[in-house]
Specification:
Elements (H helix, E strand, L loop, with lengths): L15 E5 L1 H4 L4 H5 L1 E4 L7 E9 L18 E19 H4 L4 H23 L14 E5 L6 H11 L6 E4 L1 H8 L22 E2 L2 E5 L7 E5 L4 E5 L2 E6 L8 E14 L5 E5 L7
Parallel strand pairs: 2-10, 5-13, 6-8
Antiparallel strand pairs: 1-11, 3-4, 4-12, 6-9, 7-8, 9-13, 10-12, 11-12
Length: 277
């Protein structure tokens, strides 16, 4: 009789694949926070077609009993290219058998997959293209010369019919804004005080401070214009692949993709080293 990893969580028993809902397990992933789920990915599907209304139909007043004129709305679709983020590691059999080890390993793999997905979501060169690399996204202004450029970015999005939902910024750039003084020579911040951290909102829009954002650049966006498709997060274990090392192979995979419907509803801003009111 042979026993392996006694007491291990069921999800980590030998040669078994467990699938998890990313909306539950990967809540901090940027694609889940800043995009709208528009499709699911099954297996190795390379792309997903997402329909959307590119131009709303016309509407007008109609007399009772009169014929209603056709509105003429325009339907379109956007293709979402997907890729698989994966991580694999070898862990000693003795370590996996320790109490709580499976959960700690799972969290580590989760962080690795999320980190890679976040970097791609913002900076991927192509197929799919990261948000900060998409051609045609306008720059609303420079926060190092005028904090009110945030309002300009919101106005551009709302003027195009959208709604600003998230503001993305690098940690060092958020520090720049947090240290912005009320006036020249003042030690009082416009967005924080000496006792409390700066509330992570600007102009009423939630701020996400993330290291994957390119330093020196920020973005105001409408999450409904960033459509996403992703599948389940799959965690698998094998006791065979590293047999000679008496180790266990652990693998995490997650297929995801995204695209932008209306680039005008994403607005870039620049952030310099010194910001003034």
């Amino acid at each position: 009789m042979v026993q392996t990893t006694p007491g291990a969580a069921e999800a980590w028993r030998p040669n078994q694949v467990s699938s998890f809902d990313p909306d539950d397990l990967l809540k901090t992933a940027l694609i889940i926070q800043c995009a709208t789920l528009a499709g699911s990915v099954e297996g190795d599907a390379p792309s997903v077609l997402v329909p959307y209304v590119s131009a709303d139909p016309d509407a007008g007043f109609v007399a009772e009993g009169a014929k209603i004129t056709f509105g003429g709305g325009t339907l379109s679709q956007v293709a979402i290219s997907t890729n698989k983020v994966a991580s694999i590691d070898a862990v000693s059999r003795e370590l996996v058998a320790q109490k709580g080890a499976a959960e700690r390993i799972a969290r580590s793999m989760q962080r690795a997959v999320t980190s890679k997905a976040d970097m791609a979501f913002l900076n991927n060169a192509s197929a799919p293209t990261g948000l900060f690399q998409v051609a045609g996204i306008a720059t609303a202004g420079a926060l190092d010369t005028n904090i009110f450029a945030v309002y300009d970015a919101i106005a551009e999005i709302e003027g195009d019919g959208g709604q600003a939902t998230h503001f993305l910024i690098h940690p060092t750039d958020w520090a720049v804004l947090s240290k912005m003084p009320e006036a020249t020579g003042s030690n009082r911040s416009l967005v924080a005080d000496v006792h409390n951290a700066a509330t992570r909102t600007l102009a009423g829009v939630p701020v996400i401070v993330h290291s994957a954002v390119p330093e020196g650049t920020a973005m105001m966006l409408d999450s409904s214009e960033v459509v996403a498709a992703y599948g389940t997060l799959d965690l698998a274990r094998s006791d065979d692949v590293y047999f000679e090392s008496d180790a266990v192979g652990i693998r995490a995979t997650w297929r995801l993709g995204w695209n932008i419907v209306r680039p005008a509803r994403l607005q870039k801003l620049t952030v310099g080293e010194e910001t003034t009111p």
